[in-house]
Amino acid sequence: MIKRIIINIHGFDIAVILTNASKMASISHYTYGQIYLSCPFSTSIDKIKISLEKRFSYRLLAKFDHELLFTDSYCYILGEKRRRVKPFSYLEITKNDFFAKDDEELFDKLKKLAYDILLSRVRKYETIMNTKKHDIKITAMSAARGKNYYKKSLLTFAYELVHFSLELIDAIVIHELAHDFYQDHSSNFYNVVYKFCPDYNKRIEKLNYGVKK
User: Fold this and answer.
1) φ/ψ of residue 200, rounded to 5
2) How many CB atoms neighbour CB 143 within 10 A?
3) Which one of 7, 91, 149, 159 is separated from 182 by 20 to 30 angstroms, measured CA to CA?
């Protein structure tokens, strides 16, 4: 179970993704411009804020794209900001609006959309990279953006990727397919990655900081 809260850290509104735990973890990490932390859900916002301000410097957080992946009023899809609209809204509806009555429905729609997009990109790069075909699965992932279950011919991807441009999504697809050749992160593995994605490091940096495209 996870919980998403917005905390002002060093003057920046940051999405913090909490995983329920018996005590606050000594290590937390960031990706997609969000901070991930394990702690008891009963922990006060002030305590979390103080802890994170010690762990994450102003200089680091200043590099983040400070537009959240989604709010009650908008949602990023493939790097583009789309207005989020609830059914029966009084607003004039446009074709770019994204409908979701609540966050639960939003997540369901994002996962379905992510599945369609990731399946298409995987099929494209399976052909380009001359790999076997894979099944894919979309899930919530606290640390990894994807995983290659080589023996099962299964790739899993984090649904959050749907918020980012195809260029950034492709970097993760290439990374996971490269594990068909090497099931580690050796120099040989990264040679395959860089062959098909020469600016891989730049794209990963954008994903880390939550830069949408």
Assistant:
1) -50, -45
2) 8
3) 159
**pTM recorded for the entire structure:** 0.93
Q: What is the DSSP string of the chain?
A: -EEEEEEEETTEEEEEEEEE-SS--S--EEETTEEEEEE-TTS-HHHHHHHHHHHS-HHHHTTS--S-SB-SSEEEETTEEEEEE-TT-SSPP-TT-EE-SSHHHHHHHHHHHHHHHHHHHHHHHHHHHT----EEEEE--SS-SEEEEGGGTEEEEEGGGGGS-HHHHHHHHHHHHHTTT-SS-SHHHHHHHHHH-TTHHHHHHHHHHT---
Q: CATH number for the 104-209 domain, one of 2.40.30.270, 3.40.50.720, 3.30.9.10, 3.30.2010.10?
A: 3.30.2010.10
In angstroms, the CA 180 to CA 189 distance is: 9
CA 8 remoteness from chain centre:
20
| Cβ pair 180, 122 in contact under 8 A | no
- Kindly list the domain boundaries of the chain, sorted by start residue: 2-61, 74-101, 104-209
Over residues 90-102, the pLDDT tens digits come to 666 677 888 888 8
Distances (CA, A) of 61 to 23, 66, 82, 125: 25, 9, 24, 33
